[in-house]
Amino acid sequence: MEKYLINPNEKKSTISKDIYGNFSEHLGRCIYEGLFVGKDSDIPNVNGMRIDVVNALKEMGLPVLRWPGGCFADEYHWMDGIGDPSKRKKMINTHWGGVIEDNSFGTHEFFELCEQLGCDVYITGNVGSGTVREMSEWVEYMTFVGESPMANLRRENGRDKPWRVKYFGVGNENWGCGGNMDPTYYADEYRRYQTYVRQYDWENNRIYKVACGPNAEDYNWTDTVMKRAGRHMDGLALHYYTVTHDWGHKGSATEFSQDEYYKTLRKAYHIDEIIRRHLEIMNRHDPSKRVQLVIDEWGTWHDVEPGTNPGFLYQQNTMRDAIVAALSLNIFNKHSDRIRMCNIAQTINVLQSVALTDGADMVLTPTYYVFRMFKDHQQNTLLGSFLTGGEVGTDEDKLPGLVESASMDENGVIYSTIANTSADSSAEIKCQIADSEVKEIEAEILTGAIDAYNSFENKDAVKTVKFENFSKTADGFTAEIPACSVVKFIIKR
Ligand code: AHR
């Protein structure tokens, strides 16, 4: 029997709702077809946005969306995406399949999408191939309230009031696709560009500035950028993808062995150590811990589905991906004292997507259900908690068998999310909640074979159902958590 202790007296930090953010890039069928089909499409839409996808994302509790890239951001010129759509300049999307981008989804369309979703926006600006003036004018266009050249242009294009820009990223992966810069050069460029990301309305529309952070374990990047530019940023953005083998041969999204399952999970779990080490460096340069960590690209990256455009990065999504999502989100919750936002890559039809579309059809992935289960943690207080569970895996790839987090809402209700990472063994747990008399518990579960997934032919192969295999005790519960599952307990006291 594994021991699970939750301490409601140990109130740790507020779990920023933006940890549950998504990332959507002009890549493959993410924006076009996945989110935006245009007003004249036969696919049901409101102002061009797919109704089925918007409703699913609202139900999932999406708090914030990052756009327009990714690598695309550093070759995106925002002025090409405003005004009459039929007259917009076209461009080649050189990163993603070399397709022609017609810019029919631009700034106004993105804000329309976020308004329909009821979510905040995170815009990434172009440092790699754009100018300081271009970035500065975009910010003026979006946020200036009075009369100005850019605010007036916005009005000419049909939008009177400024929009709220909650987060603004100054470049993306500038160590790679965003200009191949070294950290010293980027830090100096960051200082210059961010100067002109003006705060036109500090009271009502304060922009949170995000600097390009490290790729995975590039600790030197964090050290240099924090040293040279730390005082000019609010957040530093880490990117970490879980690649089962290596970049040349990532491995199939749906066909994998149990050993490969554990390899994926071990690599996903490694983000805990990566976060700790980057935070140690950040804290050295910023002892007051003002600058927060942002993880604006994370998730699994498998080989594309056979027969699909390699530049579109379209992959299926199994229970293995769901376990990656659950263990990652539990880890992010545990670091919520320092993590402000995370954005899984990418919302629809790309890497670890929450939904896939095929024409007018849509299927929700196992990862979607994890996000929907975990939405209760948003803005809750993280509680001190501890769960035994030993290790699982192979000689080469080991990780904890049970990964959890627990939070409490303003009414004292406790939410606990547990991932059982074992491929084949259930775990019996005994949970005790300090100083508590438990009145009622509800639970739900997502489980299946490690390679189970939802297809267009079988959309409900994996979905959440009520979980009943537990017994309430005076101060907690006992439960049997099935192999390869994610369980959420809602505990009323
Ligand atoms: O998510 C796909 C790509 O991965 C993004 O465009 C880029 O930032 C990263 O390398």
Q: Could you characterize the architecture of this molecule?
A:
- With 493 residues, the protein is an alpha/beta fold.
- It has two domains: 117 residues, Sandwich (Immunoglobulin-like); 363 residues, Glycosidases (TIM Barrel, Alpha-Beta Barrel), CATH 3.20.20.80.
- It contains ten helices and 26 strands.
- Strands 23-22-26-20-19-16-1-21-25-24 form a ten-stranded mixed sheet, with helices on one face.
- The longest helix has 16 residues.
- The two termini are 24 Å apart.
- The structure holds alpha-L-arabinofuranose.
- The site of alpha-L-arabinofuranose (AHR) has 10 residues, from loops.
How many strands appear in the DSSP assignment? 26
Which strand order do you get reading across the main beta sheet?
A: 23-22-26-20-19-16-1-21-25-24
Estimate percent helicity. 10-25%
CATH architecture identity of the largest domain: Alpha-Beta Barrel
Radius of gyration: 22 Å
- CATH class category of the largest domain: Alpha Beta
Q: Given the helix and strand composition, which structural class is it? A: alpha/beta
Number of domains: 2
- Could you describe the largest sheet, including whether it forms a barrel? 10 strands, mixed
Query: Might you state the CATH topology name of the largest domain?
Result: TIM Barrel
Alpha-carbon distance between the two ends: 24 Å
Which stretches of 5+ consecutive residues score pLDDT under 50? none
Ligands bound to this protein structure:
alpha-L-arabinofuranose
